From TrEMBL:
SUPFAM superfamilies, alphabetized: Periplasmic binding protein-like II, Winged helix' DNA-binding domain
Ranges in coiled-coil conformation: none
Protein known as: DNA-binding transcriptional LysR family regulator
Species in which this protein is naturally found: Pseudorhodoferax soli
Residue ranges occupied by any HTH lysR-type domain in the UniProt entry: 7-64
């Protein structure tokens, strides 16, 4: 068992697993114990607190108000345990340890795997986990201390008191098409120039699509959307097959353009350019040394 697990009570660990899974039976499978053992720990917590922690519903268990408070405490407790364990390992150097990263899909295509590979080559014995989710979910994982570092695209500077932006830089969107497309020869394109060309667009839960829709409304531009997907790989494959145009950030596709036979052209629009890359962390001053080293890598 990991050192950090031994620093956190069994009851709280089982409780958090039920929160994540929404059921005792699935939580028991994940922690490799009998369901009755998880039930006993939850019942013991409820008895000690004198409050119900879950609302039992046909589709699963959801947190009660008291459960929400305990979940927040348990997550912080788990994060503290992770930091203590990592700091103890740091006393032996950076030869071991674990970094948990969450990012939106654009960073997971090439940028982060390449960065992680270079980091691990320098710090052998270290392990890294990369979880991919929508931007809002990534930020939520940072807030809940379910990851050490979150990497997202963001167009809003309205933040959370429990999230620190450790790094921010502009990330304008690009129009991506195969290299033989008529627009591929231009130095930049306007939204109006995209009219008349079939579009393959990312899902509406992405910051890129949200900004694109806002920009089109402001410019009174209507595009011909023939294909949508929440998977960047499918969008890139689609535009390779026909004269369609998709949207991407340069950091997401930079290394893929040549090998996929694609070109990326900047879109000239102030609204569409109003997006940043954010590296998010919790605001604690005592992040493990390994996490700080990866952040600054």
């Amino acid at each position: 068992m990991a050192t950090s697990h031994r620093l956190q009570s069994t009851a709280l660990r089982y409780f958090l697993e039920v929160v994540r899974c929404g059921s005792i039976s699935e939580a028991a499978l994940r922690v490799n114990v009998a369901g009755s053992a998880v039930s006993r720990q939850i019942a013991g917590l409820e008895e000690a607190l004198g409050l119900a922690l879950f609302e039992r519903r046909p589709r699963g268990m959801t947190l009660s108000p008291a459960g929400e408070l305990l979940a927040e405490h348990a997550r912080k407790s788990g994060a503290d345990a992770e930091r203590i364990a990592a700091s103890m390992q740091a006393l032996q150097g950076l030869g071991s340890g674990h970094v948990r990263i969450a990012s939106s899909e654009g960073f997971a295509l090439q940028f982060l795997p390449t960065l992680i590979d270079a980091f691990l080559a320098r710090h052998r014995g270290v392990t890294v986990h990369l979880g991919v989710a929508a931007p809002a979910e990534v930020t939520q994982r940072v807030r809940q201390a379910a990851c050490d570092i979150g990497v997202v695209f963001s167009y809003s500077r309205v933040g959370y008191t429990d999230v620190k932006v450790a790094h921010r830089q502009p990330a304008p969107g690009m129009a991506v098409m195969r290299s033989s497309h008529p627009l591929a020869q231009l130095k930049q394109v306007t939204l109006a120039q995209l009219q008349g060309h079939p579009m393959a667009l990312p899902g509406t839960d992405t910051t890129l699509r949200q900004l694109f829709d806002i920009a089109c409304i402001k410019q009174r531009v209507s595009v011909d959307t023939v294909f949508t997907s929440n998977y960047v790989g499918a969008l890139l494959r689609f535009v390779r097959l026909r004269d369609a145009v998709t949207l991407a950030s340069e950091i997401s596709v930079h290394g893929l353009l040549a090998e996929e036979g694609l070109s990326a052209v900047p879109i000239r629009d102030r609204t569409f350019s109003g997006r940043d890359i954010e590296v998010q962390m919790r605001p604690e001053r005592s992040h493990p040394e390994l996490v700080r080293v990866f952040r600054d890598f």
